[in-house]
Amino acid sequence: MSEYSAYALLSEYYDRFTDDVPYERWADFFERIFAQKQVKPEVVLDLACGTGSMTRILAQRGYDMIGADQSEEMLMMAQQSCMDCNPDKPVLLLHQSMQELELYGGIDACVCCLDSVNYVQDPAVLQEAFKRVFTYLTPGGLFVFDINTRSKLEGIDGQSFVREDEDVFCVWQCALEEDSLCHYYFDIFELNEDDTWERYSEHHVERIYEPEALTAMLQEAGFTEIEQRGELSDNPPAEDEARIFFVARKPV
Predict the structure, then answer these.
(1) Class for domain 14-149+209-249, per CATH?
(2) Residue 135, class by beta-carbon neighbours within 10 Å (0-12 exposed, 13-18 middle, 19+ buried)?
(3) Contacts (Cβ under 8 Å, ≥6 apart) of 27
(4) CA dist 82 to 44, 85, 92, 116, 148, Å?
(5) Tens of pLDDT, residues 177-216
């Protein structure tokens, strides 16, 4: 058995294992927020872009897209996904972590999808990431991201899940620790050409962030007009909401 850091191997199968994610609906949600906030972004950053699924969709909708991620393996998949998706505005992909974000110019909006914020285990590091986003946003620009809530992560504590395909299947378990860290243990079984199976393991960690703490961090970074919404909703989150979206603006 071989052990890998987060997304070193899973990147190859990530899109297959997340084929139930309604990316088009997410893109619709972002565009609805842009319209509601009367923002017409030209340059959009997909922060922690992963394999580039959202980057590709927004590029196809006409935005000048930048994708940034700290995983080289995920960026390799993003490069294939985003190749020629908008010939008039080629996607720029950057190998950067959130807290080390360094762009060549301003952005009009930043989106950060699929609980990527939870993957930042150190609140001080996340605070720096918020400051970096704020720095590169143009005045009036928007920052939209989501988190897995405490309710969701406590609900899957101790559970096991299986995703399978014709040549690979993945078993993962969730364990919530007392320090508000949720550990995901992935076992990936890959079919070799000689019909034998090889096993790999990956370990991911997400931190539970309380919404009030994130609001305070956004305010500390300089954001205003901070809103919380339910999952892909225009309404405030329910008490037991599994995923909460944050919308914040850089003042004009």
Answers:
(1) alpha beta
(2) middle
(3) 54, 57, 58, 61
(4) 14, 5, 9, 20, 27
(5) 988 999 999 998 988 888 888 888 889 999 999 999 999 9
Tell the burial category of 52 from Cβ atoms under 10 Å away from its Cβ (0-12, 13-18, 19+).
Answer: buried
Q: Read off the pTM.
A: 0.92
Of 207, 214, 52, nearest to 133 (Cα)?
214
Domain ranges of the chain: 14-149+209-249, 152-207
Report CA-CA distances (Å) from 223 to 40, 140, 192: 18, 10, 50
Structure token digits, residue 99:
């807290």
pLDDT (tens digit, 9 = 90+) per residue, 109-133?
A: 999 999 999 999 999 999 999 999 9
Average pLDDT in the chain: 92
Mind listing the pLDDT tens digit for each residue in 133-171? Answer: 999 999 999 999 999 999 999 999 999 999 887 788 889
Q: By CB neighbour count within 10 A (0-12 exposed, 13-18 middle, 19+ buried), where does 90 fall?
A: middle
CATH of 152-207, one of 2.20.25.110, 2.102.10.10, 3.40.50.300, 3.30.450.40: 2.20.25.110
**Residues 109, 143 contacting (CB under 8 angstroms):** yes
Cβ atoms of residues 245 and 231 within 8 Å: yes
Continuous H helices in the chain: 14-17, 23-36, 53-60, 72-82, 123-136, 150-155, 211-221
User: At residue 235, does pLDDT exceed 60?
Assistant: yes
Report pLDDT for 55.
98
CB 146 within 8 A of CB 243: yes
Cα separation, 213 vs 59, in Å, equals: 32
